[in-house]
Amino acid sequence: MEPLTVTFLGSGTSMGVPVIGCPCEVCQSTDKRDKRLRSSILVQKGERNIVVDSGPDFRYQVLRAGINHLTALVFTHEHKDHTAGMDDVRAFNFIQRKAVQIYASSDVEKALRNDFHYAFADIKYPGVPEIKINNIEADKAFSIEGLEWKPILVYHHRMPVLGFRIEDFTYITDANSIPDAEWPKLEGTKVLVLNALRKQYHISHFTLEEALEVIERVQPERAYLTHISHQMGTHEEVSAALPANVFIAEDGLKISL
To answer: Reduced to 3 states, what is the DSSP secondary structure of residue 210?
Structure first.
């Protein structure tokens, strides 16, 4: 059976780490693990290369990871730190000579149509992104070239966001609450990736303590924290205080199931 492999293309929050102009210890750190692009992952199985979210760093993330073909681009929600780089799928249009398959909720599609209106025009300017939108909903599983994805509805303050369960792997970013009806979808997860912005309360993100409470409830074999801000602390300092099966994600980290 082919393994499922996940690579963290980015593990930082919306401003990335370091933050522009910030003199704090984390932003000035020389530890490469404290350098975080905006959150995104690459899911691979067999010949499939599926990216979740294309933030402002998408182009560089793809180059850094050596991604030469793209099976699909999946979106969690419509915030700019998760969608702003979509235009760069143009390179895959040129390579693959076909439209890129995009999987997105109706809210995300609306934002894409607004932000990248030229890609949806009736008469397109030469060279604009060629994409095909596949609408997804929180209560319906979908398949990408035979690989099943199960959406998980979470909330980012009041904004609905989609997490995803792929086999025994679950990815949840930009959340601070999980509705009761969604918890059964997490049962049996072996590897859980969950956002944890910082140690202090935040209106729309899990804190470190809250994320650890979710992990304790799910009981995965391994858990990784992502969407990290410079306010969390250094990678080395925070890692030393985590449970044995919990890790802070870092850009470029690859995990296999």
So the answer is: helix
For the chain, the straight-line distance linking the first and the last C-alpha, in angstroms and rounded, comes to: 11
pTM for the model: 0.97
Tell me the C-alpha distance between 87 and 43, whole Å.
Answer: 20
Evaluate whether 142 touches 149 at the Cβ level (below 8 Å): yes
209: burial class by Cβ within 10 Å (0-12, 13-18, 19+)? exposed
Identify the band that residue 256 occupies on the pLDDT scale cut at 50, 70 and 90: very high
Helix %, strand %, coil % of the chain (to 5): 25, 30, 45
The separation between CA 1 and the C-alpha centre of its own chain, rounded to angstroms, equals: 25
- Taking only the tens place, the pLDDT of each residue in 49-68 is 999 999 999 999 999 999 99
Q: Which residues pair with 10 in a beta bridge?
A: 40
> Amino acid identity, residue 124?
K
The domains found in the chain, sorted by start residue, are: 5-22+35-256 (3.60.15.10)
